[in-house]
Predict the structure.
Amino acid sequence: MANKFIGLLSLVILSSCSGVKNYSNAYGVTIDQQSYIKVLGKRRYMAHDPISLIFNGTYKDSVLIPVPSFSDGTIKGESIPTKKGYYSYSGSLMIKGDYLKISLLVNNTDDNKQQDYSWNGEYKLFLIENKNRNSKKN
């Protein structure tokens, strides 16, 4: 009986992680004169019971990471601005041509530990047209 329970528990845990991934492309965008790296991926909905955990779906998500520029080089995580009340970063972002590597840690001050950033990975970087939030379309 215990082996069946452990097997079922293992299946639930493994299935809860499936379907989560970061897409391979990243985008450099400038909005109102601020440069950002935008990465996209799939995330799982939060499950609050074992049945939802098994049958839970995924959704598309994205994040905008503010950067000083899209020039080749390394951007230290400590230099990435965060909003008041949000965790800061350590680690780095590295840009070399159209190659982007995100290697950030989230400084979790509530639990006094650093956690891997869920958007870490290697990406192909595409620069896209500048955006202005206040511009009117004709």
About this structure: The longest strand covers residues 21-31. The radius of gyration is 19 Å. Residues 15 and 90 are 31 Å apart (CA to CA). Confidence is low (pLDDT under 50) at residues 7-16.
